[in-house]
């Protein structure tokens, strides 16, 4: 009896030792599964560290369709980005300008070409969550020297309005600089022929400022000039009609809202930014309600 029991025991042992042999196939799975748990703690740690969400928010910007019709998009207007030799509201210190650009970057604003805003208004287009247009008037050389490289650091593009008769003059940008900026994605617009106050001009003189300036710039630069900026923000009925004669796609003026649409496509609202704009004021203008202090010192 003992022998039989013993044999049975051996048999059971054999069967038991055999069955696990049949299952070594799953063993790779357990040997793999331990790996993810050792990995997961890492990412779960990083979010807690980077609760600031700066890295997380930038890549997850989803562009959604806006328009056709009214689009909310601030358009900033700068003149000089340089150390002012005189008391002038038109000069923004390069260090201050750098802070503005850093703020736009950290606050999640994305500079878009003016043509994209126009497309959104007229036919609808995908825009980033906080679109913004950064524009410059008068064709100052310091924009090329100071603003352009600062914006390049952030992969930002701008719109530069040029006075056609001043191309290459002292203190103003020339053809080479503008071609370089256009190649980097900037758009160039006309800021008239001589920066005259359009309200003081007769038909022919106004035509030269509004219509001819477009073709002169296009010929000189070899890039499309599709937008006009009224000198001093002054629009007249005549100039408004001539903007259509010249077949501009849009025109820009001055204003305090971000509401851009078919009703003001030929007088888009731009907010002039002067020397005394600190980040608090910039935040106020942009309706930014998040933290104002910048991450990077
Ligand atoms: Zn101007």
Characterise the protein shown here.
The protein has 297 residues and is of the alpha/beta class. The protein has a domain at 64-188 and 248-286: Alpha-Beta Barrel (TIM Barrel), CATH 3.20.20. The protein is built from twelve helices and 14 strands. The protein has helices at 2-22, 28-32, 35-39, 41-49, 54-57, 94-106, 114-122, 141-153, 175-183, 203-221, 237-245, 279-286; strands at residues 64-66, 71-72, 75-78, 80-81, 91-92, 110-111, 125-127, 131-137, 159-162, 187-190, 227-229, 250-252, 259-260, 271-272. Strands 3, 6, 8, 9, 10 and 14 form a six-stranded parallel β-sheet that branches. Strands 1-7 form a two-stranded antiparallel ribbon. A two-stranded antiparallel ribbon has the order 2-13. α11 links the parallel β11 (227-229) and β12 (250-252). α6 packs parallel to α8 and α10 (203-221) packs parallel to α11. The longest helix is centred in the N-terminal third of the chain and has 21 residues, at 2-22. Residues 6-57 have low confidence and may be disordered. The site of zinc ion has 5 residues, from loops.
Structure in a nutshell:
This protein has helices at residues 2-22, 28-32, 35-39, 41-49, 54-57, 94-106, 114-122, 141-153, 175-183, 203-221, 237-245, 279-286; strands spanning 64-66, 71-72, 75-78, 80-81, 91-92, 110-111, 125-127, 131-137, 159-162, 187-190, 227-229, 250-252, 259-260, 271-272.
Keywords:
297 residues, two-stranded antiparallel ribbon, binds zinc ion, single chain, alpha/beta, TIM Barrel, 6-stranded parallel beta sheet, 12 helices
């Amino acid at each position: 009896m003992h022998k039989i029991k013993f044999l049975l025991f051996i048999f059971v042992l054999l069967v038991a030792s055999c069955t696990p042999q049949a299952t070594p196939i799953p063993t790779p799975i357990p040997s793999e599964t331990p790996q993810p748990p050792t990995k997961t703690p890492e990412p779960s740690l990083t979010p807690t560290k980077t609760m600031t969400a700066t890295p997380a928010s930038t890549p997850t910007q989803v562009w959604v369709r806006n328009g056709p019709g009214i689009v909310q998009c601030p358009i900033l207007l700068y003149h000089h980005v340089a150390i002012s030799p005189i008391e002038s509201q038109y000069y923004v210190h390069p260090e201050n300008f750098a802070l503005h650009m850093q703020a736009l970057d950290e606050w999640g604003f994305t500079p878009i070409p003016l043509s994209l805003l126009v497309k959104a208004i007229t036919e609808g287009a995908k825009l980033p969550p906080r679109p913004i247009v950064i524009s410059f008037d008068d064709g100052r050389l310091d924009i090329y020297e100071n603003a352009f490289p600062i914006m390049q650091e952030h992969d930002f593009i701008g719109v530069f309005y040029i006075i056609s008769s001043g191309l290459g003059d002292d203190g103003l940008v020339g053809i080479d600089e503008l071609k370089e900026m256009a190649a980097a994605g900037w758009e160039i617009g006309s800021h008239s022929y001589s920066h005259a106050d359009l309200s003081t001009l007769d038909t022919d003189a106004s035509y030269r400022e509004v219509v001819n300036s477009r073709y002169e710039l296009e010929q000189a630069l070899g890039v499309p000039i599709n937008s006009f900026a009224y000198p001093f923000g002054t629009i007249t009925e005549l100039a408004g009609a001539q903007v259509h004669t010249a077949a501009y796609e849009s025109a820009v003026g001055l204003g305090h809202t971000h509401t851009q649409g078919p009703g003001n496509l030929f007088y888009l609202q731009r907010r002039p930014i002067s020397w005394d704009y600190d980040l608090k004021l910039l935040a106020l203008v942009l309706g930014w309600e998040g933290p104002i202090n910048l991450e990077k010192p």
